[in-house]
Design brief:
The protein is an alpha/beta fold. It is built from 6 helices and 10 strands, in the order βααβαβββαααβββββ.
């Protein structure tokens, strides 16, 4: 099992608060590992600054910036979170850093976290597509790039100068994930149908 980042929301509160909040998640990951499940973690937007924080190591999970795999058929894939391709990643992290410092010292700076939606307003879908296409171009030496970050569970086939793409979506809105079974890659949902306000993303699924 590969966790594609942002499982632990480490930029919202102090480390002590986060450890208490995610105690159940950490214990679950430990139990899965004890049963023989291989688990790996890719750093995302909300946890990239806190690699040295003991929260993730508490679950005894290997942490990576990305993971490369080769399918049985020989096709190559790379799994990333995708925040490094977001033009609003750095401004958002600066605001989050000050809010994090404020939480440690018991005060709030009130900075709003900047997102792609703040940058392009009503053209949010176009912004999501731009991030995905950027990933496809950057990793075009691979057959497929699997990513998260945009919360949009969709797929796009491999084309000339573009890697194929699968986005895992998220667990809070779409309840979605990606399964690699042999040479087959599919997007699946933990619910039979995601909440109605999220369904529009599925319009762009191949």
């Amino acid at each position: 099992m590969i966790l594609a980042g942002d499982i632990f929301d480490l930029w919202r509160k102090s480390p002590d608060q986060i450890r208490k909040e995610y105690k159940g998640t950490i214990e679950l990951l430990r139990r899965l590992k004890a049963r023989g499940t291989k688990i790996e973690y890719i750093l995302g937007t909300h946890d990239a600054l806190y690699l040295k924080d003991p929260i993730i190591p508490l679950a005894e999970i290997p942490v990576h910036p990305y993971i490369k795999k080769t399918l049985p058929c020989g096709k190559k894939i790379i799994i990333i979170h995708g925040h490094e391709l977001d033009p609003m990643y750095l401004p958002g992290r600066i605001a989050a850093f000050f809010n994090f410092i404020g939480s440690v010292f018991g005060c709030r700076f009130g900075f709003k976290r900047t997102t792609v939606n703040d940058l392009i307003g009503q053209k949010y879908i176009d912004g999501v597509r731009a991030i995905h296409e950027k990933a496809q171009r950057k990793y075009n030496s691979y057959d497929y790039v699997i990513m998260g970050h945009t919360h949009a569970p969709l797929s796009s086939p491999k084309k000339e100068k573009l890697a194929g793409l699968y986005n895992v979506g998220d667990w809070k809105g779409h309840n979605s994930y990606v399964v690699i079974d042999g040479d087959k890659i599919t997007i699946r949902y933990m619910m039979s149908d995601p909440p109605h306000e999220w369904r529009w993303f599925r319009l762009y699924e191949d």
